[in-house]
Amino acid sequence: MDINQLIEFAGNHMLLVMAMFAIIAMLIGSEIQTRISGIRELAPGEAIRMINHDNAVMVDMREDKDYREGHIVNALHLPADPADHSDKLEKYRDKPVIVYCQRGQRSSRYCGKLKKQGFASVYNLKGGLLAWQKEALPLSKNN
To answer: Which of 51, 97, 101, 131 is catalytic?
Structure first.
């Protein structure tokens, strides 16, 4: 592709080009924010290792309906703001806490709040429950 054609395309489709740059900026900003926050993401396999070897606690922050449809075995269901559940999570303050939602985006913010509350080891399940299901890992429908 010729550079002149690229310049002509950008001139003819200014909104499209601006939208592309906005999306790129948001992706870069999101990645920078994740790295600055100190929240580490775990793949489902790493999460299983931490559950088995480090007694990690899984926290499901999805809504009640989603939780009832299937959740990770023995996960704590805490769908609201972590400040509302400080008493329920207090006994896990010194254990690794792995938080998940459906896709792993909202849980990342939830992890940041837990970190600010003084939880030592907070992790986000990368890809959320969808990644867990993609790996064909077990779910429970028991409360």
So the answer is: 101
